[in-house]
Amino acid sequence: MTVSKKIVLRFPKRMVDRPIVYRLVKDFELEFNILKASITPEQEGLLVLELKGEQQEYDKGIKFLIKNGVEIQSLSQDVTRNEERCTHCGACITVCPTGAFKIEPKTRLVIFENEKCIACGLCIPACPPHAMEVHF
Amino acid sequence: MAKTIAEINEKIKKGQAVVFNAEEIIDFARNKGIKEAAKEVDVVTTGTFGIMCSSGAFFNIGHAKPRIKLGGGRTFFNDVPAYTGLAAVDLFLGANALPDDDPRNRIHPGEFNYGGGHVIEELVAGKDVRLVASAYGTDCYPRKKLETWINIKDMNQATLFNIRNAYQNYNVAVNTSNKTIYTYMGVLKPKLGNANYSSAGQLSPLFNDPFYKTVGIGTKIFLGGGTGYVAWHGTQHNPDAPRTEKGIPKDGAGTLAVIGDLKQMSPKWLVGTSVMGYGCSITVGIGLPIPILNEEILEYTTITDADIYAPVIDYSDAFPNLRSDKMGEVTYAELKSGKIKVKGQDVPTASRSSYPKALEIANVLKEWIDKGKFLLTEPVELLPGVESGVKMKPLKERPIED
Q1: Shortest CB distance from A90 goes to which of B111, B275, B350?
Q2: Does pLDDT of A43 surpass 80?
Q3: CA quadruple B228, B230, B234, B238: dihedral positive or negative?
Q4: What fold does the segment set A2-77 form as a domain?
């Protein structure tokens, strides 16, 4: 069975210069799509990946990452909507490149489907009441 | 048969008034017919919840001991400057005011995270705000410096006074240029990448009274979660805008100036707002009750999104250059479908104004009236109508020569 998941990887300082993604491809035959990558001034690495492959190999790959000290988190926890601040205007809908926001036709409430979110962050400053929050 | 506002109020007091929101009335009148519906229905409630820049509040903060004259000095709420060109302790804070050290658009597009609208929201939420002031000192007002926490409940008056709200219709903004632009109508992607609109359409107050036959000075309204009044016609009020056969403006037209006691309002309906690349503002909730005085007025309230046209304007060229050329006209029904056609191209749409919150406002107002908590008022004078000759003019620039 093939799986495809969006995950956030955090690398400790000692890992930043190691070809982790290369190993995922070579040893576990996983396909990757880099959604975001950065190294902070404290030299911690952050990588947001879409990872795809056979379930068994995927699990092995994740195990390999954990063993090497990489912290893994599911992407959907990283961009959230502050429900109290959201006014359901809909300004986010055309800003989002992956269509993670849509209007519920009957109520015209704005629905945030965070499984579609790639944490690009475009909605954060574009949201007029600043209801969208990113927690990297 | 005609009704008066006094008769409607009698029914409200007895809990017998029949009230619909501006969405429900559409089907009700369709089934009953205009004549029957006008007989049965007493009030139709409307609502809108959108970014309304020409908003602000007057404060009287009380006299300090010894006294300080803030008038002519400098005063800040949480670093946001207030207008001090008034008497000793009267201040005005505009929703668009920015802290002196905000970088604005120095790195474009600026984020505009905190401004006057946010201060107003925090005050209404009951939060303490930092007030820092400097003055020049006089014999009767000797003090030159003031730094204190302040809370809305300790002020003598806090009066919301929005000089232009509830625009009757608005532009649909698009961008035909090759780069993304950051406008007050939101982020507009290049080459007609999206279209942003800003009206609650069929629920919006002035679309339901297109010729201002019931709304005027003194009309009591839902304002920011509390009650307020129409104070005057709003700035840029333009009854002269082009209209459809039914009289519905096809362009920005009427506006309201509204006033109310900020102390009884709620941060749910006055939300500090950031417009990327543009500035700070405030999102304001307004609900206007429309007394069904006769069949004509009932018929106006049955307006649907399919009856209302908005102009599509290029914000990369026509708008900044104050040209009136339109790229087309679309209905709110089309806008709400999620895409419109502009110059043969499918363009995805998004709203800047919240329809579900507008509906909530219309329903809150309906509930207030149903429960007898909100009576209608007779306007002292109606807003200037089509026959008034009031028009919106551009600035006539006259170069100053030495």
Answers
A1: B350
A2: no
A3: positive
A4: Alpha-Beta Plaits (3.30.70)
